[in-house]
Amino acid sequence: SATPAVLPSLLLCDFGDLKGEVARLADAGTKVLHLDVMDGHFVPNMTYAMPIVEGLRRHTDMPLDVHLMISDPLAYAKAMVDAGADMLTFHVEAVKDAAAVAQEISDLGVNVGIALNPETPLALLRESLPHVDMVLVMSVEAGFGGQKFNPVALEKLQVLRKEFPDLLLQIDGGIDTSTIGPAREAGCDLFVVGSAIFKKDDYKAAIAELDDAIAK
Ligand code: DX5
Ligand code: ZN
């Protein structure tokens, strides 16, 4: 599988100093930014959308991995791509025909990911897998940072990795120095991290500790 990477999640960051946050993350070795978009409908929380993606796009060359926690991903996919998103991940629970949604996003010329919450069975993904570049296995219920890691994600990662050796796998929720190793062992490539970076003063040290824990 791919080279593992830690993706900071812009959810618990300082939105009053977004430029500074991005600079600190870049300095800490970040290669990809994970952007958490919530609509107050698919999840009970709201965050931000295209203007922030567009603003970030003007300040960094890092790929922008946009996690759409919204009810109607296709209604905003084109606008997100125009704003500068490089990868759009939508939730299988949000749509009727996930394979068709994946294909439509892919046709916009970006990478496409499909996400599933801890309660959602893997079987729901089957038909979409030929149309996606990545699966995002949620290890918390989408909606809030700072929740407790649900190990059901590890089982899903193992099953997916065994069946699809080349599929890009991402995990999101409750990832810290104690959960990142088991997630890597289960076959995960990309590790989204909120609290375990942003609740620390020194992002560089926090990311270095996470990188160490992946390697162990
Ligand atoms: C949850 C978001 C995550 C979250 C991760 O809905 O998708 O990206 O910010 O935060 P932590 O690492 O605190 O669980
Ligand atoms: Zn996320």
What descriptive keywords fit this protein?
216 residues, alpha/beta, TIM Barrel, 8-stranded parallel beta barrel, 8 helices, 35% helix, binds D-xylitol-5-phosphate, binds zinc ion, isomerase, zinc, cobalt, manganese
Please give the radius of gyration in angstroms: 16 Å
Can you list the strand order of the major beta sheet?
1-2-3-4-5-6-7-8
Number of helices: 8
Structural class: alpha/beta
Compressed to H and E, one letter per element, the order equals EHEHEHEHEEHEHEHH
What small molecules accompany the polymer chains?
A: D-xylitol-5-phosphate, zinc ion
Helix content: 25-40%
- The CATH homologous superfamily name equals Aldolase class I
Gist of the model:
The chain has 216 residues and is an alpha/beta fold. The protein is 35% helix and 20% strand.
Overview of this protein structure:
The chain has helices at residues 18-27, 50-59, 73-83, 98-107, 152-163, 180-185, 195-198, 203-215, and strands at 5-10, 33-38, 64-69, 87-91, 111-116, 134-138, 168-172, 190-193. It is α/β, with parallel strands linked by helices and 216 residues long. It has one domain (5-215): Aldolase class I (TIM Barrel, Alpha-Beta Barrel), CATH 3.20.20. The chain has an 8-stranded parallel β-barrel with strand order 1-2-3-4-5-6-7-8, surrounded by 5 helices. Strand 3 (64-69), helix 3 and strand 4 (87-91) form a beta-alpha-beta unit. The longest helix has 13 residues, at 203-215. The protein starts with a strand and ends with a helix. The mean pLDDT is 97. The structure holds D-xylitol-5-phosphate and zinc ion (ZN). Zinc ion (ZN) is lined by residues 9, 34, 36, 67, 172, 192.
